[in-house]
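Q: I'm building a small set of examples for a reading group on sequence design. Run inverse folding on the following structure and report the sequence directly after it, with nothing in between.
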């Protein structure tokens, strides 16, 4: 119908519903403070608390929550269209499980700027992945991908190159975004590997485009600052395969040999 990628607004969370941190920290809404006996707010939050409801001292659960937030951020920022981010999601803002905080003019709805210091690693990740998106036009194309099988500008796979699995049971997805359009190089290439499974998965790495090699750029399963590195500090990938952590994303960038 003539619309462009920029006509699409992409988001994980919005002003209605859970914050991004609550999306990975609560299974159920906690709206009793709203005074409506929790009848208000959506019941279908499509969330998972990562193993424990609400605040926890379990470092394993907390690390998993941060990993999932970074994976959501990678999917959002590296997708075509216009990304929308709710204020505070970039540093782990919580509404204590309240998914309808319109009536809360207090700590539940306020932005706690101390979280920017407390979760500085998460804020760093968001800052860098936004910079990455803005620096590479391959992530914000002016047109959708053409259906050209001879010179594809995007190639899909699951864990094996050339073999995408679109079945509901498959929890893995990978794709190569080609920086060359109609044979003319306009950007670097990117390999994006997503593991939505609860166990680590091995991905076979496709061959890079001619005259280029892959370099590791993002691993949401790694702690900060190893979760995202600058292009100048990224290292060549020489292995034939890579293990992507559960509920994580790994992204490579191609550079000239």
């Amino acid at each position: 119908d003539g619309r462009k990628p920029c006509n699409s607004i992409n988001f994980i969370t919005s002003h209605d519903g859970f914050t991004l941190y609550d999306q990975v920290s609560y299974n159920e809404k906690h709206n009793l403070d709203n005074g409506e006996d929790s009848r208000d707010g959506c019941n279908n939050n499509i969330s998972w608390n990562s193993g424990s409801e609400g605040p926890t001292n379990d470092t394993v659960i907390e690390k998993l929550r941060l990993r999932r937030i970074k994976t959501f951020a990678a999917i959002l920022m590296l997708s075509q269209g216009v990304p929308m981010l709710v204020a505070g999601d970039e540093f782990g803002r919580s509404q204590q499980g309240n998914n309808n905080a319109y009536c809360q003019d207090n700590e539940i709805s306020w932005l706690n700027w101390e979280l920017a210091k407390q979760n500085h690693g998460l804020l760093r990740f968001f800052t860098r992945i936004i910079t990455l998106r803005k620096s590479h036009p391959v992530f914000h194309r002016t047109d959708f991908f053409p259906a050209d099988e001879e010179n594809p500008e995007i190639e899909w796979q699951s864990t094996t190159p050339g073999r995408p699995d679109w079945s509901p049971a498959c929890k893995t997805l990978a794709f190569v975004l080609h920086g060359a359009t109609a044979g003319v190089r306009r950007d670097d290439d990117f390999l994006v590997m997503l593991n939505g499974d609860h166990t680590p998965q091995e991905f076979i790495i496709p061959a890079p485009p001619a005259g280029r090699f892959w370099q590791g750029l993002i691993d949401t399963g790694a702690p900060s600052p190893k979760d995202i590195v600058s292009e100048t500090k990224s290292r060549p990938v020489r292995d034939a395969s890579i293990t992507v952590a559960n509920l994580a994303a790994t992204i490579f960038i191609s550079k000239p040999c």
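The first strand starts at residue 9 and ends at 10.
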